[in-house]
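Troubleshooting log. The previous structure file for this entry was overwritten by mistake, so regenerating from the original sequence record. Sequence copied from the archived sheet and checked twice against the printout by T.R.
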Amino acid sequence: MHQDDMNMCINALPEPVVLVDGNGVIQTANSKALDLLHRKKAFLEGYALSDITSLCQESVLERLKILKRSRRPIPIVI
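Regenerated output below.
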């Protein structure tokens, strides 16, 4: 899926969504997530998920390791 298509899909969702890569780096977030976090998109993209949570980078990577094996989106609370 192309990045623009992905952004359009997640922006249509009513829930806040933050997409990260396997290293916990934020790739994009929808407008609901930006509002919830009181951040601009430019601040989030490229930053580590651990930068915006109370979790350390090691804890983020442990959770992502579990999620990596899934072929479907899995909502988690961070």
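The helical segments are 3-12, 31-37, 41-44, 57-68. Archived copy saved in two places this time.
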